[in-house]
Design brief:
The complex is a heterodimer of chains A (310) and B (328).
Chain A (H helix, E strand, L loop, with lengths): L20 H38 L1 E2 L7 E2 L3 H8 L1 H34 L4 H13 L2 H11 L6 H9 L13 H26 L3 H9 L4 H12 L1 H16 L3 H7 L10 H11 L4 H29 L1
Antiparallel strand pairs in A: 1-2
Helix pairs in contact in A: 1-13, 2-13, 3-7, 3-10, 4-7, 5-11, 7-11, 8-9, 10-13, 12-13
Chain B lengths: L31 H4 L10 H5 L1 H34 L2 H4 L14 H10 L1 H33 L4 H10 L9 H9 L13 H8 L2 H12 L4 H8 L4 H12 L1 H17 L2 H6 L8 H8 L5 H34 L3
Helix pairs in contact in B: 3-16, 5-16, 6-9, 6-10, 6-13, 13-16
The chains are: A mainly alpha (310), B mainly alpha (328).
Chain lengths: 310, 328
């Protein structure tokens, strides 16, 4: 199916009874904005305005009752001097890196294997996407039970195999990794299916040519599969980073940021400022602004890379 | 570009697409469907698969993948269901039992009462249906205007809508919350009101992107005849465009409903009243006060609607996923 490109200018062929061009254009614009007005309202109030408001709030102090006062960089000072600040960024970064290894490389490998299989494909696709459909709260509470140091499933399995048991969520060394495992289990499916779709678009004769040139299986993956899916890989890299930067429900439900701030993430710290420690909206917004700038930087890098690809 | 990704197994319907590997006379294939040459060629060539070693490795790999997938993705859910039916002693027992000794179905009724799941499900369903109707109406109109009516500044508006995709909602959680407590200009207070869910859901750049892309692919010739006859734009939308757009409307609908069921942070903030909570938030608030098997029972009940949706709309969901990923 070929898509027709739509030229921006209207066709200039003379029509019957044209009520003057300008009048028609005005009518068109009027009806177009009629269709747009509801969406513009929703976007303006609940998507665009909050972004502006975040910047404003970062430099203000407000309690939602009295009019806000300008406080310059005070909020940023509060945030930076908080002992949890460095820890939160470190955790978010570590979480993102771990989640990239688990949530970016593994799905790609899984998709390559699935694409080779000729049987049970429907079943495997269904099963891998099942956790994605569950509300995250289900996954999180289920794993909380698995992580239980006593009768929890994971320690029971370790015990059964004869390995030493772990204290999962209760130790500073394993708490963060435990959260990454939950996240990966929840979100692996969408990555796998997206890669699978990309792999199915690779023309088979490329592999054939590689085979005739004597490339083995790993060489074929390296020289055909990866270059052919590079754009999707780039896009998914960014989506993954953006997704893990906003980790919230895992620390909120599983650890409350503990033990000893080992699992405090930036998003969770933001929530705490605004909704736990007596409504410090300014500090929370300042932190949110930093996160927003970080994400926009990631997006800008990704756009540059995509442009160069093309 | 031909988009076969919407039908994941489209690859298997082209028997004419023979690979250049010549068939040796004897065909040993009793399972013609799976081994047919029509299967699009992937990394490993059919010839390599048919060698003695190739077959051995293939079957070992298949069994291994099936086992691992079932263990990793299905077994936890099995553990959840059986865990709900175990008694308090049995659930704390070490080593754990694989099957509950005396499956107790009463626990589901207990969980229903303790979590007040009736109210929670009713709320969530109400939010989901409302969000679905509202978001679809708003976004379809906007995408139609941007795609076919092409007003002045349309491209700027579109860029502004896509820009929101770069900024995840949680980053602006605080200002968004403040906006909901006091909507600028109008001064509405939307806490505990369903509109706190519905307005932001409609401001979804991804929906606009999907719908607009589909409308762009509808040839203008289809609409021009009606335009010349002086049919108003809304009639064109309702009687020409919507009937052909059924697949994409399905995708957007499902994604909207699923998003409402899955969302956690936003309803946690804007629906603090326990009578107004969604199922996810409600479960999280009560989980500390009930026993382990009751929690599991609650989770099972909360999972059922989504699993049913997935079962029936699998195809649309997969199509939507892949359509979204081809942005690049």
């Amino acid at each position: 199916m070929e898509t027709l490109t739509v030229e921006p200018q209207r066709r200039t062929a003379p029509r019957r009874r044209p009520p003057s061009k300008r009048g028609r254009a005005a009518r068109r614009n009027l009806s177009a904005y009629g269709f747009l007005c509801a969406a513009l309202f929703c976007f303006a109030m609940f998507a665009w305005w909050p972004i502006v408001k975040e910047v404003l709030l970062s430099f203000q102090s407000t309690n939602l009752v009295d009019p806000p006062t300008w406080v310059g960089l005070d909020n940023f000072r509060t945030v930076v001097h908080d002992p949890a600040f460095g820890q939160a960024w470190r955790n978010t970064l570590v979480f993102t890196l771990l989640a990239l290894v688990c949530g970016y490389i593994i799905p790609f490998a899984v998709a390559i294997v699935l694409n080779e299989l000729r049987h049970a494909r429907a079943y495997l696709r269904f099963v891998v996407y099942l956790p994605v459909m569950l509300p995250p709260i289900v996954a999180v509470l289920l794993f909380r039970w698995f992580y239980d140091p006593g009768p929890g499933l994971f320690n029971q399995i370790l015990d059964f195999v004869g390995l030493p048991t772990l204290s999962w969520l209760d130790s500073t060394s394993t708490a963060l990794i435990s959260l990454v495992i939950v996240s990966t289990w929840m979100n692996l499916g969408s990555g796998v299916l997206i890669y699978l779709a990309a792999l199915q678009n690779i023309p088979g004769d490329l592999y054939e040519a590689a085979e005739l040139d004597g490339a083995g299986i790993f060489k074929r993956i390296w020289h055909v599969t990866i270059p052919q899916t590079r754009l999707i890989l780039l896009l998914m890299l960014m989506l993954q980073i953006v997704a893990t930067m906003q980790v919230f429900i895992e620390p909120y439900m599983l650890t409350g940021g503990g033990p000893e701030n080992a699992t405090v993430t930036v998003a969770y710290l933001m929530y705490q400022y605004a909704f736990v420690y007596g409504g410090n909206y300014g500090a929370g917004s300042a932190l949110g602004l930093m996160l927003m700038v970080a994400l926009l930087a990631v997006a800008a890098v990704q756009l540059r890379l995509t442009r160069e690809e093309k | 570009m031909v988009n076969t990704t919407a039908r994941p197994d489209a690859a298997e319907q082209t028997p004419g697409e023979k690979t250049t590997v010549r068939r040796t006379g004897r065909t040993t294939s009793r399972r013609r469907g799976a081994w047919a040459e029509g299967h699009t060629r992937t990394i490993v060539s059919p010839l390599e698969l048919k060698s003695r070693w190739g077959r051995k490795i293939y079957w070992t790999l298949l069994v291994f993948v099936l086992l691992v997938f079932t263990l990793v993705f299905v077994f936890p859910l099995y553990w959840m269901v059986t865990g709900a039916m175990k008694s308090g002693e049995e659930i704390a027992q070490m080593p754990p039992t694989l099957f509950p000794k005396h499956p107790d179905f009463g626990v589901f009724a207990d969980a229903w009462k303790l979590f007040d799941i009736g109210t929670l499900l009713k709320n969530t369903l109400y939010y989901a249906v409302g969000a679905w109707l509202f978001a679809l109406a708003v976004d379809v109109c906007a995408a139609y205007a941007l795609s076919k009516l092409r007003p002045m500044f349309g491209n700027i508006i579109l860029a502004g809508m896509f820009a929101t995709l770069m900024i995840p909602p949680i980053v602006v959680m605080i200002p968004a919350y403040i906006t909901v407590t006091d909507v600028p200009i109008f001064g509405w207070h939307l806490l505990n009101s369903p509109w706190a869910i519905w307005f932001p859901v409609a401001a979804n750049g991804f929906n606009i992107f999907l719908l607009k892309r589909f409308f762009d692919s509808i040839p203008n010739e289809l609409l021009e005849a009606a335009e010349i006859d002086g049919v108003p734009p809304w009639r064109i939308l309702v009687s020409i465009i919507l009937p052909i757009s059924r697949p994409i409307l399905g995708v957007v609908s499902i994604f909207t409903v699923v998003a409402i069921f899955k969302d956690f942070v936003w309803p946690l903030l804007v629906l603090p009243d326990s009578e107004k909570m969604t199922i996810s938030v409600g479960l999280s608030q009560t989980a500390g006060a009930v026993t382990q098997n009751q929690i599991m029972a609650g989770l099972v009940i909360a999972s059922i609607p989504m699993i049913i949706v997935f079962f029936f709309f699998q195809r649309s969901i997969m199509a939507g996923l892949t359509a979204g990923s081809l942005k690049g």
